Each structure stands twice: as structure tokens, then as C-alpha cells.
Prior knowledge:
Structural class: mainly alpha
Order of helices and strands: EEHHHHHHHHHH
Number of strands: 2
CATH superfamily: Ankyrin repeat-containing domain
Distance between the termini: 36 Å
Helix content: 40-55%
Radius of gyration: 17 Å
CATH class: Mainly Alpha
Amino acid sequence: MAVHRDALIDEEDNEEENALFEEDGFVVLDSDIPPHLRDLAFAAQVGDVNSLSGALDNLNGSIDEPVEDGDTALHLVCLYGYLPCVQVSFLGANLEAKDEDGAIPLHDACAGFVLPTAGFAEIVQLLLNSANSAECVKRMLETVDAEGDTPLHHAARGEHANVIRLLLASGAPVTKPNVYGKNPSELPDPDTEASRILESAASAVSCQ
């Protein structure tokens, strides 16, 4: 999964040559990004929908080609919460493409960082609505990454209550544990809205 600048802790000085940062805090360029994908990566990370559209039009290759850390363009725009960019990027893209950690774009949308321009619930809804069948939706909701986390685990960890509600309404598994034995209801801080929603959903499942 790509890393947002705000999620970075203190880095060693010699790592500065591996990435450039804009003043607004986004990771802009990484030395590992293939040259022909740099315009695409830049546009996806800063949310420039016009530049992204142009980069996709000029892309000589697959829209599902990994851009950074195994993430496709769709992974990146889902992570950063740029709904207009997602609307451009998902056309023809594989909704179930996995990055190097086994995460699909839905994981990124559910784990997204809270930004003033973020529209994560809308992005999650768009991804689910774009699935070509109920079976595809089920697979997306049940896909686990390298740590066994489903998209609901990611939303729970970020305490994104609106996203949690949407995932549960779509049939996300609420009692599925990750590799650490944690189900989604155990991840939010206690007495938060996210925690109450998940605990109620888990309780309802246990009573069935």
C-alpha cells in the first residue's frame, strides 16, 4: 500500500533521495516508479483529475500496471480519497487487482486518510456498485491482505463510521479474524461510534 506523507514518522536523512514531497504533504515521486508511469502517479497522488485523465489517455500499457508498491492507479486514488479521480481511474480497471500486500482498491478506500477533500464512503459505494455481480461484491468484501485484514478491518481501524455502515449493509463479514486473531469490532478505540456499530453488528451475528 502506498504511504501518505502524514503517516510517515521520522525518516533517515539518506531516504530523502527516494521520494520528493510537495508542501501539502503528499508523496509525489518515488525512485522506483517506472518513468512512463510518473505522470500517472503524480496526478493520482495530488488529485489532479485533468492531468490524470491525460496520463491515462497517453498510457502505453495496462491501467492495472503497478505504479508504486504494487499499487495500481486505482489503489492510489482510493487511498487518497479523490472521488473524481476514482471515477476516471476505475473505467476498465480491475477492481480486484492486488498490491504487494494483497490489498485491493477497496482496502485502500476503507483505510483512507482523513483529508478535507476526502470522499471515502462515496468511493466505497462506487467500487461496490461497479462490481459486475453479487459474487464479485462478496469476493471484494471478503478479500484479505497479507495480515488477514478485510476491507472492514481497515475501516474499523480508521474508525470511519460511515464506511463501516456501508460495508455492513453490503454484507461484509463482521466476525472474521485477521492473522492476529482480531475481528473488526476489536480494532476501534472503545466508546467510539465505530466501536458501537461493530459491536452491535457482531452481537447480532452471534445471536443468529
